[in-house]
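Key result, reporting period 2: structure in, sequence out.
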């Protein structure tokens, strides 16, 4: 179940003001490097429209609970499920569905997570929906990289960025994880490293032989700060999937292996040997 307590504070304030003034756009692009706040904010908005409580959205009424648990007929989510692309086959049925009038409320909501993975054909199918929505619909694309979204798609959305919140929350989390302020400063912008680790994570679950190659690539000239970040980010991805009840058994197994890697590093086992252990035992 989605927890919209993770929604961005500034972003929800902006959207609530638009809602109260009846100025909600029909399409948004949420740029969130971690995508956690982005997806939570998207669900928060759907709850805002449908909540039957007094303090909207309260997250506890029947309508909010149905939305957050993925059981509302007017709210749809498409994500990559760890795959490298989002195909037209995943977009086409939703496009057809969202041409219909809302079943219960006065809006339908179409969320696309990992929107940077949309294929060209999927992008083209989506364009028609963004240009001329047949029914009252709010389409929200959530991505970790605005530059990987086609300009024709970007131009048809209102862009909301979660960058600043990501930087502040990431620094706090890394300090709590055990990195020093100097190590965090040394890391600088972590976007490319996050993406590399995410690819490794996906390849692990696909049992792709490229995982071992990527492990070696990550280990090349990796500073201590980067080594710590790799394991931190792998654990973060695991926790995100557990929160969404994705691949629970496999994710739990990977977390156990990551804990073992922590013990190995404490015993001065090299970074590359820890990664080898992780890949070969998963």
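The corresponding designed sequence is given below.
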């Amino acid at each position: 179940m989605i927890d919209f307590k993770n929604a961005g504070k500034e972003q929800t304030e902006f959207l609530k003001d638009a809602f109260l003034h009846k100025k909600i756009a029909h399409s948004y692009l949420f740029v969130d490097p971690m995508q956690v706040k982005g997806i939570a904010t998207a669900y928060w908005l759907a709850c805002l429209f449908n909540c039957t409580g007094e303090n909207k959205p309260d997250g506890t009424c029947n309508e909010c609970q149905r939305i957050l648990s993925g059981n509302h007929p007017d709210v749809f989510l498409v994500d990559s499920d760890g795959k490298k692309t989002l195909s037209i086959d995943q977009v086409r049925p939703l496009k057809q569905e969202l041409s219909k009038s809302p079943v219960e409320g006065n809006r339908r909501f179409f969320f696309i997570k990992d929107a940077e993975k949309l294929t060209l054909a999927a992008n083209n199918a989506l364009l028609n929906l963004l240009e001329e929505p047949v029914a009252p619909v709010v389409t929200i694309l959530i991505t970790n990289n605005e530059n990987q979204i086609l300009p024709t798609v970007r131009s048809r959305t209102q862009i909301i960025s979660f960058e600043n919140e990501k930087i502040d929350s990431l620094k706090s989390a890394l300090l709590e994880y055990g990195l020093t302020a100097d190590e965090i400063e040394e890391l600088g912008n972590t976007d490319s490293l996050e993406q590399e680790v995410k690819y490794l994570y996906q390849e692990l679950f696909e049992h792709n032989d490229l995982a071992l190659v990527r492990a070696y690539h990550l280990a090349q000239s990796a500073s201590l700060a980067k080594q710590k970040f790799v394991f931190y980010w792998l654990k973060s991805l695991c926790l995100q999937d557990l929160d969404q009840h994705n691949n629970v058994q496999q994710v739990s197994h990977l977390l156990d292996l990551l804990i073992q890697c922590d013990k190995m590093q404490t015993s001065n086992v090299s970074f590359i040997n820890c990664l080898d252990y992780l890949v070969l035992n998963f």
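The chain has two domains: 4-163, 178-281. The radius of gyration is 20 Å. This case is discussed further under Risks and Mitigation.
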